[in-house]
Structure formats: C-alpha cells, structure tokens
Design goal:
The structure holds 2 protein chains of 2 kinds. Chain A is of the alpha/beta class. Chain A contains 23 helices and 12 strands. In chain A, the strands form 3 sheets. Chain A has a 6-stranded mixed β-sheet with strand order 6-9-10-3-11-12, sandwiched between helices. Chain A has a 4-stranded antiparallel β-sheet with strand order 2-1-4-5, covered by helices on one side. In chain A, a hairpin with a 2-residue loop joins strand 1 and strand 2. In chain A, helix 3 packs antiparallel against helix 12. The longest helix of chain A has about 55 residues. Chain B is α/β, with parallel strands linked by helices. Chain B has 3 domains: about 200 residues, ABC transporter type 1, transmembrane domain (ABC transporter transmembrane region fold, Up-down Bundle), CATH 1.20.1560; about 170 residues, Rossmann fold (3-Layer(aba) Sandwich), CATH 3.40.50.300; about 70 residues, P-loop containing nucleotide triphosphate hydrolases (Rossmann fold). In chain B, a hairpin with a 2-residue loop joins strand 4 and strand 5. In chain B, helix 2 runs antiparallel to helix 11. The longest helix of chain B has about 45 residues. The chains are: A alpha/beta, B alpha/beta.
Chain lengths: ~600, ~575
C-alpha cells in the first residue's frame, strides 16, 4: 500500500535518459513512419523557410524594377508553397498522430497482457483502481510525446537548418552578425532550465506535501471532527498551502524573466540587422530585399525557443507516466510454469495432497502438512472456522498460489509439472462472490468460449434451474448484464455462476458456497442445483449448507491450518471433536429443507 | 454561457489592484511592441532611400530600447496577474478546505478520497489556468489586436482592407471544424469510458478469468476495444489535423496579399517599401492571437466545467453545525444520556437503521451494545457526538438536546474510539495528544498506561517521538487500536465511547485494559460496543440490538437467564473459545 501511494506521488523528473531509451524502443516497429515523418518534415521545413527568400526576390527583382508580371509570378509561387505546405503538413500531422496512437496501443496491450498474467498475490496487494489508471490514463498521457513531441523536435531542427542555409546563401557576414546573440541565448536557456528545474523541484516537493496532507486528512476527517480540531487543522493546512503558493510564485519569476529576455535577444538581432545590414545596403554591398528577408528569418528562428516551456511540460508528463507504467511492467509476481510441462490427458479427477505446506507470507504457514486423497467422482466437503485454511486448499489446487513443500497430484501427476492453464481447463471454480461481466446472460455463461454451443449453454442453465427465470427476461439469453448484474437477485446470480461452471463441463468442480441468506424458494432451487452440479464428478465444496455436508462422501475438518478430522457427517458427529463443535456453531440452526 | 465562473468575482475583486496594474502593464508593453514595426519601417525607408544614413544606428538602438521597455513590462505582467492567480488558487483551496472540514460524515461516505482530492487539485488548477493565463492572454491579445488594426489602417487603409479580408473565413472555418470536433470528441470519451470499464472488470474478475482460462479471449476483447478507440481517435485527428494548415494558409494568404497588392502599390508609388515590411511584421504579431484564441477558449471551457464541479461541493450544506437553536451558555456537560423515540435513516429512500429507540444511561454508568453486523450499533453511538442527526425523536445529554449543545463543547467532552482506527503520520506522542492539544508528558504516559501501550513504546526506536505511518514505523492492528484509545482518554472525556475498539487486541491484553479502564471510567459515562461477550459482560447494563431495535436489555446474568439472542451468542462464544484452545 505504502509503495503504491508513493507511486502516485511521482511527479516526474523532467528528463530521464534511461526511461527515454526504453520509451524509444516502442518506436522501433514504426521505423517506416518515422522515416516518412522525417522526409515529410524536410519538405515541410523548406517551404516556410523559402518564403522570406522569395520575398527578397520580389523586393529586389520585381518591386524595385517595377516588374508587375514578375510580382504576379512570385506571388503565385508563394501561394504554391503555402498550399503545398498545408497539404504536406496535414499528412504529417495525420501520420505522426497515427504512429503515436499505434505506439500507445501497443503499450496498452502489452501492459494489459502483462497484468493478466500476474499472480493473484499481485492483485491481493494492489488496489484495482490503480492498475486501471496505469492501463488507461497513464498510457494516454504518453500520446502527446509520441505524436507531437518527438516529431516536432525534428521539424524545429529542420526549419532552423533551412533558415541557416538561406541566410548564409544570401549573406555570410550578416548571418554571422545576426546570429551572434545565439551563444547568449544558449547560455540564458541553460541558466533558465537549471533555475526552473530547481524551482520546479521545490514546487513538486510542496505539492507532494499538500497532497499527502489532504489525502490523510480526508481519510481521517471523522477524527478531525470528533476532536473538534477543524480550526487547528485549517491553520496547519494554510501553512502547507502557503508554501506551495510561494514555491509557485518563485517559479513564476523565472518564466517572467526568461520570456521577455528572449524577446529582447530577438530585438537585438533585429537591431543588428538594421544597423549592420542597413550600413551594407547603403554601401550597396547588400540589397534591401536581403534585409527584409533577414528580418523575417529572425522572427521564424525565435519561435521554437518560445515553445520551449510547452515541450518541457509534455516531456515531464510523459516521464512521470512512463516511470509508473514501467514499474508495473517490471512487476514479476508470477506463478511460474514448468519448462517442459506434462500434458494432461483424459483426466479422471483423482486428487491427492501429500504433506502440503503453504504460506501467503513467508514463515506464516496457513496449511501445515496437509495430506488427503479424494477418489474419482467423490464429493468432499471442507469445513472449519474462519482462517482455518479452507480457501487456501482450493487456491493451491488451482495453482493460484504455489505451495512451499509437499506435492499436489491429479491422477497421480504432480500439478507443479503441468502447465497451469492446462490444469485449470479441467477444474471449474465457483466463487462465493459471483462475478458477472458486462455483456449478456449468454456471454456470462460461456465467458466468450466459442467451443460452447448455444445448446450447451441452455442445457447448463436448464440443469441448474436458471432457465426459467432467464426465459422470463425480455431478451432471454441475450438480456444485457450491466453493472455486475445489478438488476439480478443474489440467487439468480448464483445460478448463473453454476450454469457457467457446468457449461465448461469440468472433471473437477470446486464450490465455495455463499453464506448470504436467501429466501426459502431460492434456497430450494440452489440446493437442487448444487446436487446436480456435483453429481458424477470429483468435487470439493467449502460448505456452509447443512444439506451439502450431509450429502458429502467425505468431510475434511480444518483447524488452524491443519487437517484435524476426516469422515462422514455421522462418523464425525459421533466423535464429538472439533466437527461436533463446528456443527453446533454453524450448521445446527439451519433448518433442513427437504428438496424432494 | 460560463455562468459558473461568476462565482470567482469575489476573488477578482480581492486582487483588483493586481489585475488593474497588470492590465496597465499590458497596455504599456503592447504600445511598445506595436512601435517596433514602425521603427523598422522607418529604418527601411531611410536605408532604401539612402537618406540620413547616420540615423540608422539610432533606429537600431531604438528598436532594442523599446523592446527592453516592452520586456520589462512583460515581466511585471506575469508578476502581477500570474502571481495574483496563484494567490487566488491559494484562497480558493483554503476556502475549499474550510468548507470540506465542516461537511458531515455522510459526505465523506458518498465521495471517495480520490474524488475529493481531484477537486482540490485538478479542478482548482483548471480554475487557476483561467484566472491566470487565460485572463492574461485574452487581454494581452485583445488589446494587441485593437492597437495593430488602427496602425495598419493609418499606414494604408486599402492594404489593411485586403489583408484582413481572409479573417472572416478563418473564423467561419474554425467555427465549423470546432462543431464537428466536439461531436467526435464525445464519441472518443465514450469509448474511453468503455475501455476503462473493460479494464476495471477484467482486473476485478481476474479470479474468474484465470479459473476458466479466459485470458486470451479477454485480451482479444480488450484489443478490439482498443482498436475501436484508436479508430475513433484517428477520426478526430483527420479533422483536427486541418486546424494548423487552415491557420497558416489564411495567415500566409494575408502575407501574400501584402506582397502582391502592397508590391503593386509600391510600384505605383502609393506606399513605401517600409510599409510592406511593417505589415509583414504586424501580421506575424496577429497570427499568435488568432491561434491562441482557440487555446484560451479551451481553458475557459475547462475552467467552467471544473468550477461547476467545485460549486457542487461548495453548495453541499453543512447540516451539522451550530445554529439558531444552539445554547452557547452551555460550557460543560455532565454525561447523562437519553434516547427518546429515536429513529434514523440514512436517506428517505432507505429503510430505517434505528427504529424507535428509547434508553437512558445515567452519569457514571457503563453500558454495552451488542448485536449482529448491521444491527445499528455504530449508527446509534454516532448520534451522540452528532456525526448524524436523528431523523425522528431526540438524543439528550443532561436533559438538553444534543443539537442545542455547542458542537465544540459536545465533541470536546466525548472520547470516541471509532471502529476503523485512523492515526496521523506524526509522532506517537502527538497522536495521543491530538485532541488534548497540550504536549503534557503526564497525560501521555497516563493514557498510554491504561491503553497498555507502555511496553510497546519501550520497544520503539524513539519512544513516544517515534513517527507512525508511511514515514515511520507501521503499527500492528492492536497497537493502532490501543493508540486510538489513548488518544480518546487523553482528552479527559465526560463520555467515553468504544465502538468495537478491541477487535484487533488479543483477549489477554483486552482484559488488562478493561481492568485499568474501570478506574478511569468512575464518574464517567461509558458506552461499549463489542461482538465479544467477554468485553461487555461486566457492564451495568447490556442492550441487544437487532434490526435497529432494542430486543433485549439487562445485566449479563439476566440476559443469559433470558435465553434469547444474547444467551445464544454467549453459548457460541464459549464454544468458539473451546475451539480456539484446541490445538
């Protein structure tokens, strides 16, 4: 929890070479796009750069010589470059956006695939909302960097190169004079970046303080109110809020100084052009057109510098998001698959636990030396108090978690030597909390498995007794399920989850009975359904129903992680041990509803 | 249209002088800025006509000098308007917090911490972008626009007319594109929500997916959704990509008009060459305001939406505050509590949680409430410090309705240990002394002693100065509950309420605490909620709640005798104890 909270407080370094390098690996598959973008950029960069040069020709050759036809030609040419630029620019924007979108698509899918493979251990310790944010918003905020960010850097560079080219073609010495302020610009930019980075670090620090104060006090608002500490807390809050404000105001200062300073440098360039260039024109070393073209070039040249802060922001956001994304991608909480898995064939369904030890946290064993055998076709009930280890038995059998010591075998094959997905194909698990996906009733039974025919779906529903209520729904099996089945009753949802398990026709069925109380009518339905569900297959039930334990072939009594008693209901009652006590605690009060 | 933003008026008024100065600086800076092209024009004319060449250097220096003036004022613009916006941000957040703090518990149950946080950060930030940059840019660009047009007209009305000709088309095109963009944007948002929902469902239902080996299928489905999202996004891009070209085509078109029409005018001797240069310079100054118009419009729209969200919070009624009925002469309470015909429901659509509760607790008594989860125990005690107000009936202390007791007096006299422990990431001492306020070592030690914290403190690296939580040590559940208890004891309360406060404390320690509490509870009224018979059995009176009603009441022995719910619970807990003892 702690770690993850800090995750969200990562506000991003402005630039991190390692992260950038890793981000760029995602661009690799789109080399073609990049190449195309660069090519288009070269073209698109020359077009605006050539226009001041054309203006120069217009001034020197046509306006000065009163050549009206020439002026028309040059205007047409200018228009031509403009339209061409518009077209190329359009496609450039389109392709770079497309590339950006494809890249974030790739990252999103990779992330999703990765998260789905992570072990349950990961989901136990990570809030779902956080994972969702990584896959959606964080990935989204990379978009701008990939689409406009990277490419616009190219375009700026090319424009500047072309400007240099035309300037130097027209006049070497005026170019040098004009550009003489560049070292100052570089130095100023360097200084600015350094100062802004410091100021920004400060802002970030205070923002983190502000956020953690708010987070903490919103969560604990009842305590604040309980002790009537609102006034004191407001004072504390105002101190933190004030620090944040002042850090921001300090950073305003650097921006306030830098941008006017860049303007000033640009004005100095213009002054130099007028002074030096003007002198040259008077001495007939230069034409007036060159002077005018230079004035336009300076204007164009400074624009990228002014966009600096915006790009800085894009970069920063991308860095922060990618750091969080990569952290999730690097999470290695997997349940490992064997290198050369044994293929399971024709599973009969015999289960054996041999001296199994298991712990969620190292050292704290929740299963201690568990050994039992369930024969093919038998129904076994597991009973025990909360925390006795019932759920851990099914968690380890399905390899949601791997055991520490011992072996678990199915038909005599050690399941750790089997591909876990192959294993799960033979086991259906019905959980206590029914989880329904948005979709239809049908898709919730088949879970999108195309191998399950419509007939099988209906049969499964009919067998568990869900068919009748489904047929009463307006769209029957195609009725939409929304918001986790909010419109269905608890009992109906359970029946659907039974149908789901049955449709997959498993060799082994695991049922974690829900404890929630339901009306007698539904209770009868569910009892009947459970009976049919268990018939003819090996099944393990974490039992909460008296009827289930009475019908079980065998009952395993778990206590504090150990298997204490094994036997049938009558045998165990007669023993007057743990089971006897549990029975009085949990089952005795249940009225036995005759299902027939 | 942006009605929500009128709320900000009071803040603007507060910083009126900053804004007025800022506007003045904008005007000065813009006057200087628009002079530069005129200077360039004059110098070009000088150079072109070979006149007064000795003046060229002066013009160059003027250009630099004037820009320097503009720059200095640019600096002051940011230092006034942007700084003021940061101050408004501060004030707004301050007001937000002050308001939030007074909201009833109900509000915090209906709004997640993340949601409230995003109001306090993202939304306030969006509003700041409006009161700062958006205001600055629109005034800056608006005045620049208004200054440049007359100058251009004065230089050449005819050329100005031709140059401005494309502008209406620009506005029209922008309007049309914007309208379509909005539509496509909504479609993208929809898909994004679906994508988010898909991810949410997948991760929530991961057990089912893994059990039935549906990972590949789900990945395929998610990929499909992502592809559709990409498609819709590109749908928008196809349109949005038009924006940039439209802008520079229109702007570029104007420049070509300057060269073509202007050039012709120069050839005909109607205007000087310098005017063309000045026009080109002015045009480049005008492009930015045109482009930024969309940018500013966007900021305003976002700010309005954010303000709307903020206003929804600001309009949340405080509900539980001192009011007309408050009797400020009450400065202390003794501790006799009475519930008269109390019913309570969380809202009109929900069934009552408490149903006609009548009970009386005398000063100095210890009573206990016991019952199933959801039977109404916590709701009942929450009515005493007014976390909620009753729907019907009344809760009185010393015969006075709690709604008439000043809230601060009421709460300062109640030591409440809530079910869910919350401690601040501060030192242990400051957590214990939180309600008391004075860092009195005696009090801390006394409270810690009763709460059985002393041994734990000895094992902490810095004793009472050890920082708890994220930045310090993590306490166990039991330690947390005992600290929370110490915090309640430290305020020397007249009424002590323990809402299932020992659930994470082991039975042995609990017994020790209860033993010590007995002394403390003398002359104080105490209310204990618990699931454990062992915790409540020694109380003066025990109430059994079921479904919001009191179904049994009496002493431990009486209730066991009665053979009802309490007796059943007693029997089962004995069994459980036996089970636990077994190994």
């Amino acid at each position: 929890m702690t770690n993850h909270r800090k995750d969200d407080e990562i506000l991003g370094k402005a630039y991190d070479a390692k992260l950038m390098k890793r981000l760029l690996t995602y661009v690799k598959p789109y080399k073609g796009y990049i190449l195309l973008a660069i090519l288009l950029n070269i073209v698109v960069a020359i077009l605006p750069s050539i226009r001041p040069y054309l203006t120069k020709i217009a001034v020197d050759d046509y306006i000065a010589n009163k050549n009206y036809e020439g002026l028309i030609t040059i205007s047409a040419l200018l228009l031509g470059t403009l339209l061409l630029q518009a077209v190329v620019q359009y496609f450039l924007t389109y392709f770079t956006e497309l590339m950006g979108q494809k890249i974030i698509f790739d990252i999103r899918i990779q992330l999703f695939r990765h998260v789905e493979k992570l072990a349950l251990r990961f989901f136990d310790k990570t809030p779902i909302g956080r994972i969702v944010t990584r896959v959606t918003n964080d990935v989204e905020s990379l978009n701008e960097m990939f689409s406009s960010g990277i490419v616009s850097v190219f375009s700026d560079v090319f424009v500047i190169i072309w400007i240099f080219f035309f300037m130097f073609t027209m006049s070497w010495d005026l170019s040098l004079v004009t550009l003489s302020v560049i070292p100052i610009l570089f130095y100023a930019t360097f200084l600015f970046r350094k100062k802004v980075r410091e100021a920004y670090r400060d802002v970030r620090h205070h923002l983190a303080r502000l956020n953690s104060y708010m987070q903490e006090h919103i969560t604990g608002m009842n305590v604040v109110q309980l002790f009537a500490k609102e006034e004191e807390e407001l004072k504390k809050f105002s101190l933190i809020n004030r620090d944040y404000k002042q850090a921001n105001i300090r950073s305003v200062f650097y921006y306030a100084i830098f941008f006017p300073f860049v303007e000033l440098l640009s004005a100095i360039s213009i002054g130099l052009i007028i002074w030096y260039g003007g002198g040259e024109v008077v001495q007939n070393n230069l034409t007036l057109g060159v002077l005018i073209a230079f004035l336009q070039y300076t204007e164009m040249f400074w624009r990228p510098v002014r966009d600096l802060s915006e790009k800085y922001n894009i970069l920063q956001t991308a860095m922060a998001s990618s750091e969080r994304i990569f952290k999730l991608l690097d999470d290695n909480t997997f349940v490992k698959n064997p290198d050369n898995p044994i293929k399971l064939n024709n599973v009969k369904g015999e289960i054996e636990f041999k001296n199994v030890w298991f712990a969620y946290n190292p050292g704290e064993y929740v299963l201690k030396d568990i050994s039992f055998k369930i024969n093919t076709g038998e129904t076994t009930a597991i009973v025990g108090a909360t925390g006795a280890g019932k759920t851990s038995i099914i968690n380890t059998l399905t390899r949601f978690y791997d055991i520490e010591k011992g072996t678990i075998c199915i038909d005599g094959i050690d399941i750790s030597k089997v591909d876990k997905r192959d294993l799960r194909r033979y086991i259906s698990v019905v959980l206590q909390d029914v989880y329904l996906f948005s979709g239809t009733i049908k898709s919730n039974i088949s879970l999108g498995n195309e191998e399950i025919s419509e007939e099988q779906i209906v049969n499964a529903a009919r067998t568990v007794g869900a068919h009748d209520f489904i047929m009463k729904l307006p769209a029957k099996y195609n009725e939409a399920v929304k918001e986790k089945g909010a419109t269905l009753s608890v009992g109906q949802k359970q029946l659907i989850s039974f149908a789901r398990a049955l449709a997959f026709d498993p060799k082994i069925l695991i049922l974690d009975e829900a404890t929630s109380s339901i009306d007698t009518e539904t209770e009868i339905l569910i009892q009947k359904a459970i009976e049919k569900l268990l018939r003819g297959r090996t099944s393990i039930v974490i039992a909460h129903r008296l009827s289930t334990i009475q019908n079980a072939d065998k009952i395993l009594v778990m206590h504090k992680g150990e298997l204490k008693e094994v036997g049938t209901h009558q045998e165990l009652l007669a023993r007057k041990g743990i089971y006897y006590k549990l029975y009085q605690l949990q089952y005795k009060d249940q009225e036995v509803i005759k299902t027939n | 249209m942006f009605g929500n933003l009128t709320y900000l008026k009071k803040y603007f008024v507060r910083y009126k002088s900053s804004y007025l100065r800022g506007i003045l600086f904008i005007l000065i800076s813009n006057v200087a800025t628009v002079l530069v092209p005129i200077l360039i024009k004059d110098s070009i004319n000088l150079i072109g006509n070979n006149l007064g060449t000795h003046l060229i250097l002066n013009y160059a220096l003027y250009t630099v000098g004037i820009t320097l003036i503009a720059g200095v004022f640019q600096f002051f613009i940011r230092e006034t308007i942007i700084v003021a916006s940061r101050k408004i941000e501060y004030d707004l957040r301050q007001d937000f917090w002050e308001h939030i703090q007074k909201l009833p518990l109900r509000f915090f149950q209906n709004n997640s911490t993340g949601n409230i946080m995003s109001h306090a950060t993202n939304d306030i930030n969006a509003v700041r972008s409006f009161v700062g940059p958006a205001v600055m840019y629109s005034i800056d660009n608006g005045t620049l626009f208004l200054m440049i047009i007359p100058i251009m007209i004065s230089l050449s009305p005819l050329l100005t007319f031709y140059v401005l000709l494309p502008l209406p088309f620009l506005s029209y095109l922008v309007y049309i594109v914007m309208k379509k963009v909005h539509l496509k944007y909504t479609r993208i948002q929809e898909k994004f929500s679906e994508l988010t929902e898909k991810a949410q469902e997948n991760f929530s239902g991961i057990r089912v997916i893994k059990s039935y080996v549906r990972e590949d299928y789900e990945l395929k489905e998610f990929t499909k959704e992502s592809e559709e999202y990409l498609k819709r996004k590109m749908d928008l891009v196809r349109l949005q990509a038009l924006f940039h070209p439209i802008f520079f085509i229109i702007a570029g078109f104007s420049s070509i008009i300057v060269i073509f029409v202007g050039g012709k005018m120069v050839i005909n001797g109607k205007i000087s060459l310098g005017i063309i240069v000045a026009f080109i310079a002015y045009l480049s100054m005008l492009i930015w305001p045109m482009i930024s118009f969309g940018f500013v419009a966007n900021l305003v729209q976002q700010a309005d939406a954010s303000m709307k969200r903020l206003l929804k919070f600001f309009n949340e009624p405080h509900e539980i505050i001192d009011g007309e009925q408050t009797d400020y002469s009450i400065e202390n309470i003794a501790g006799e509590i009475e519930f008269k015909n109390v019913s309570f429901r969380y809202n009109d659509f929900l069934p009552p949680v408490l149903n006609n509760i009548n009970l009386k607790i005398n000063k100095g008594e210890t009573v206990a409430f016991i019952g199933k989860t959801g039977s109404g125990k916590t709701t009942l005690v929450n009515l005493i410090p007014r976390f909620y107000d009753v729907t019907e009936g009344s809760v009185t202390i010393d015969g006075v309705d709690v709604r008439e007791i000043p809230l601060k007096v009421l709460r300062k006299n109640i030591g409440f240990v809530p079910q869910e422990t919350f401690l601040f990431s501060d030192t242990l001492a400051r957590n214990i002394i939180y309600g008391n306020g004075k860092e009195d070592e005696e009090v801390i030690k006394y409270a810690a002693q009763i709460s059985q914290l002393v041994k734990d403190v000895e094992s902490f690296p810095k004793g009472y100065d050890t920082i708890l939580g994220e930045r310090g040590i993590t306490l166990s559940g039991g330690q947390k509950q005992r600290t929370s208890l110490a915090r309640a004891l430290a305020i020397d309360p007249k009424i002590l309420i323990l809402d299932d406060s020992f659930s994470a404390v082991d039975t042995h320690t609990e017994e020790e605490i209860l033993k010590r509490l007995k002394e403390f509870m003398k002359n104080r009224t105490s209310i204990i909620i618990s699931h454990r018979i062992s915790t409540v059995k020694d109380s003066d009176k025990i109430f059994v709640l079921d479904n919001g009603r009191i179904v049994e009441e009496g002493t431990h022995d009486e209730l066991v005798e009665l053979g009802g719910i309490y007796a059943d619970l007693h029997f089962k807990q004995l069994l459980e104890e036996e089970l636990k003892e077994l190994n």
